[in-house]
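Lab channel / #folding
Pinned by the channel admin:
"Please post every new chain as: sequence first, then the structure tokens as a reply. Keep commentary short and put observations after the output so the thread stays searchable."

First post following the new format, from NK:
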Amino acid sequence: MARSSQTEMAVLGALSVEPMTGYALREAIRDVLGHFWSESFGQIYPTLNDLEARGLVVRTGGARARSSTFAVTPDGARRLRELLSEPIQAVPPRNGLMLRLFFGRMLGVDACRELIAATRADAERRLREMDRLAAEVAGEPQYSDDAPFWRLTISAGRHTAEAAIAWADESLAALDDMDRSSR
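Reply from TO:
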């Protein structure tokens, strides 16, 4: 699936929850989907304009995307279902931390330890964020049809953060062992 199709899916998906302005859509993608999906803000407004031209969303209010409210049309809902039904494309991983650790001999044990400790702290922050999101979803009865699916993504975020913490603890212990054995 092309990047533009995935942007289209994110925009239509967010608007399927509720109509919103371009600005609110941008914020929702960052704040709500952001724990598992990122989208270039520079793609959101052109995508809204394209979806409107194709009759997949309808604009009400002002002429500017930022101040107009967008809603998914029936054709837009059909397009979203099509996009959601397409096979998921694997994306080659690009993990800067793993690249640095792989060449850790050149970086040094102390620098590797700092990178891993920072990663652990970030995972703890993400875990707290997942707890906050779970509480927020539980407190929004107007989204009860979506909430079970949202909880699945929150659970995945929790598991990912917990795994990162466990990996960091194991890795920090391994670095400590390397320090002890090199003395």
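NK: The longest helix spans residues 147-181.
TO: also worth noting, The chain has two domains: 3-85, 96-181.
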